[in-house]
């Protein structure tokens, strides 16, 4: 790993210390904990500045989460020494959510927070609810952040202007096992806006992405479009391997088997938030 330029390193150190100082001003904390990079760095920072008895990590177990996410979050929280609570969320019971409009994430976030906060307060009654939104999130279409703001959630990483890349570097400095883990947002984000969110469609996406993970594509999205079209995104440098005739045939066969009618490869490569292009066009 190449050494960072001194100016970059100094800036990151200042931001990290600013984060720790901000957290010291909070008496007790409820951390909305998915087990991903952002929330894990946040939880570690909270534990560095608090007695563990004043901290609880709460994970929302959702039917739209990738397989095994809640279990991985539990293992991470235990490794860090935090009290951990899992609560089930019910966004799939909300017709306004399953209609998959552009405010889907807003509705989901409200639902998750309505479950996480009361569960956390059973452990730390006076806890401040924190989430792992980072500075990069402020520049994308993130309706979930609006819901968090309305609910009074504090976002220390964003407040300290910590970007995703900087959080990865902090995770390396703190020897956190998720430092290189790709982001893995809710599976509903794979469905084109307007396409109804159903358990069957979520199941197909989950199975398809797990299949690709097992074949050496850790950073992958299987986007779901009308007429049961799967559009596979992998980083640009991995497209040639994805196009290998034998592997391509295995992937197509499996995706047809689990219910996709058409299977395509996106030649532009992977980019987070690609479904938001539809919103840009409408605007």
Topology:
Elements: H1 6-24, E1 29-32, H2 37-49, E2 55-61, H3 69-80, E3 83-88, H4 95-98, H5 104-121, E4 128-130, H6 143-150, H7 156-159, H8 164-173, H9 199-214, E5 221-225, E6 229-233, H10 239-242, H11 245-257, E7 262-265, H12 277-282
Parallel strand pairs: 1-2, 1-4, 2-3, 6-7
Antiparallel strand pairs: 5-6
Helix pairs in contact: 1-2, 2-8, 5-6
Characterise the protein shown here.
It is built from twelve helices and seven strands. With 283 residues, it is an alpha/beta fold. The protein has two domains: 6-173, HUPs (Rossmann fold); 187-282. Strands 3-2-1-4 form a four-stranded parallel sheet, with helices on both faces. The chain is globular and about 55 Å long.
Give me the secondary-structure category. alpha/beta
How does CATH name the architecture of the largest domain?
Answer: 3-Layer(aba) Sandwich
Mean pLDDT: 92
Distance between the termini: 42 Å
Per CATH, the class of the largest domain reads Alpha Beta
| Coarse morphology | globular
Report on the biggest sheet: 4 strands, parallel
Determine Rg (CA atoms, Å).
19 Å
In terms of DSSP E residues, the strand content is 5-15%
Tell me which oligomeric state these chains represent: single chain
Instruction: Identify low-pLDDT runs.
Output: none
Give the strand order of the largest sheet, numbering strands 1, 2, ... along the chain.
3-2-1-4
**Number of domain units:** 2
- CATH homologous superfamily (4th level) name of the largest domain: HUPs
Total helices: the number is 12
Q: Kindly report the CATH topology of the largest domain.
A: Rossmann fold
Number of strands: 7
Could you spell the SSE succession in H and E letters? HEHEHEHHEHHHHEEHHEH
**What is the helix fraction of residues, given as a range?**
40-55%
